[in-house]
Amino acid sequence: MPAPERDGWGIGFGYSGNGCLTLARLVDVLLDDISAPAVRPDAPEARRGLFDLLRRTPTDGTTAYTREQLLAAGAG
Question: Which residues pair with 6 in a beta bridge?
Fold first, then answer.
C-alpha cells in the first residue's frame, strides 16, 4: 500500500471527500514516478478519470487495480 492508514488518520477512498482526492493525486504521481515523494496538499489535481475510478471503489478492501487499469482510467 503506497500510503498506509494510521488509527484515525490516513488516505481513504470510496467516497468523494478530500481523502479520495489525495489518493488519486498520489496514485497519479506514482504512475509517472514510483520513487516520487508523498503528495503535498498543493499538488496539482489528479486526472479526472482516475479520481472517478477511486471514488467508486468499494470500501470493503477486496478491490485491486492493475497498473494498466489505472493508466486507462487516467487517460479516459
Answer: 9
Q: What residues have CB less than 8 Å from 67, skipping those under 6 apart?
A: 31
For the CA atoms of 23, 29, 35, 38, the dihedral, rounded to the nearest 10 degrees, stands at -50
Secondary structure, 3-state, 10-68: CCCCCCCCHHHHHHHHHHHHHHHCCCCCCCCCCCCCCCHHHHHHHHCCCCCCCCCCCHH
Q: Cβ(50)–Cβ(70) under 8 Å?
A: yes
pLDDT tens figures, 6-24: 555 555 555 555 677 888 8
* pTM over 0.85, yes/no: no
Contact present, 14 and 55 (Cβ < 8 Å): yes
Averaged pLDDT of the chain: 78
